[in-house]
Amino acid sequence: MSTHKDRLAALRDQLARQRLDGFVIPLTDEHLSEYVGAYAQRLAWLTGFQGSAGTAVVLPADAAIFTDGRYTLQVREQVSGDDWQFVGVPQTSVACWLGEHVDGGARIGYDPWLHTRAWVDEASAALADRDAVLVPVDANPVDAIWPDRPAPSPALMTVHHDDVAGASSAAKRAAIGDWLVDKRADAVVLSALDSIAWLLNVRGGDVDHTPVALAYAIVHADGATDLFVAPDKIDDVVRQHLGNSVSLHDRTRFESTLRDFAGRRVVADPAGSVAAIVHALEAGGATVIAQRDPVLLAKSIKNPAEIAGHRAASARDGAALTRFLHWAATTCPAGTETELSAAAKLLEFRQASGLLRDTSFSTISATGAHGAIPHYHVTDESDAAIEPGHLFLIDSGGQYADGTTDVTRVLPIGPPTPEMRDRFTRVLKGHIAIATAIFPDGTMGGQIDAFARRPLWEAGLDYGHGTGHGIGAYLSVHEGPQRIANPAYPGGQALEPLRAGMLLSNEPGYYKAGEYGIRIENLVLVEPRAIPGGDPDRVMLGFETLTFAPIDRDLIDPALLTNDELSWLNAYHAKVTQIIGPLVEDEVKAWLLERCAPVG
User: Fold this and answer.
1) What is the pTM of this model?
2) Phi, psi of 406 (to 5 degrees)
3) Is-contact 303 499, C-beta < 8 A?
4) CATH top-level class for 158-299?
5) Would you kindly state where each structural domain of the chain is located, as residue ranges?
6) 104-155 residue pLDDT tens
7) 8 Å CB contact between 200 and 246
8) Fold match between 158-299 and 301-595?
9) 3-class secondary structure, 257
């Protein structure tokens, strides 16, 4: 098992023992999480791929790994092309590929705790055309050959206090109960870890970068809730916080409990619930109502306490990032630092506040060609020196009790080329277009995504990811249902009106394969906008930028900016000095003032 080739061969042997002709391995867990605990990192263990989204299919003679445009370069660096075919999604789906590659009569296995019912139906239909079948497994064959598979985290569940949550768990559960009454439903099954954490005002340490605890919940129409969690994760403090209206059960009892709803109407999110949940409910005689998790929209609209917390976290985080940018500007041109040492230095600056709980994702510390990989993950093997003549991209964030941050900056190591300045300025123009957008209430993120792309499109350029994602309140760094995205790119199919109180990222980019990457990311808050002379009956919305750190002036070509764009940039930098200046020391403050001086 020392090589990924050995692991692939071992899996094929295991599939033969289980009388299977293939198996599908998604990068997720039984909660369909984006980031998963070490115990669920089956795709990485099998293939070597370190990205945060992907799926593999193993057949007797073929093996394929499916990734979207964010990982086109990364997957080829980390996974052997001798053993695996590289397939792009959404251009080709896993189901379609299976339908084209399996033999007639084949039995293709899947873990029903790792796929949605919709995926099962789609794959089954594709296989039926080849007289092949999709077979649920009781035991995942990857687990059977993974000798040192980590155990799930033993971390305790913790209380997320009402003063930062902004509402009590009882009030939130009562609102979900009212929603169930409106839907004429008896209960809703919650399997998304961040939904459970938000609803119960609890947090955890079971998943790197996301403060959640492994659990399931069933909320009833009267607001009473059954929580399924390992008993040793609950202490007296949490038990008292949850109160008598939350009944505690061992996590292992969840599936059997789902079979106890005979004759009742139970909501299960078709996109957020694994097939095993739906199968168990139906097997027990429940009527399954396919409705979106009602917590999703509720937690996406931040209340005043959550917004205030995010402002405080953003200022604290911006000061740490500013210290880092000063350090990088003065240290990295010597060529003595690497991607790993830079990431460690930024973590050191964040930890200095004494309030950092975790990073909000693995820091993307990327120099030169690595910057052209949007979700690059630096490892000991890939670590590169930060040297003059290259762009250095740093995308990072922090988890604080009062907020979650996510920010990207790019700085040139030595003088940038004219092309670098042109591309950076076009990305900046797109960033400003989103930051200054005004739109009617009810507008969806996909409708304004093109604002960010137009300056690049005008030069025959584009980028292969969404422009903005939602973000949680000391929760997931990527939070739905809101997005700013082209339907052609990952996540773009999610159509959700933008509402006041939502937090999103604003992060257009440009990537030149083999040379450099550019992305400028701030977080923004959707807020009402009064438009003088506008229709008084029409509610208009806009964005307030909440992230503050200097945008590198050496990469800006002022000639490409309009007067309005220059005004925005200079006003933004003036606010950076106002908010961050008092939080940094003399040498850094002097550098900050110089970097934030008016442009143009």
Assistant:
1) 0.94
2) -160, 120
3) no
4) alpha beta
5) 4-145, 158-299, 301-595
6) 999 999 999 999 999 999 999 999 989 999 999 999 999 999 999 999 999 9
7) yes
8) no
9) helix
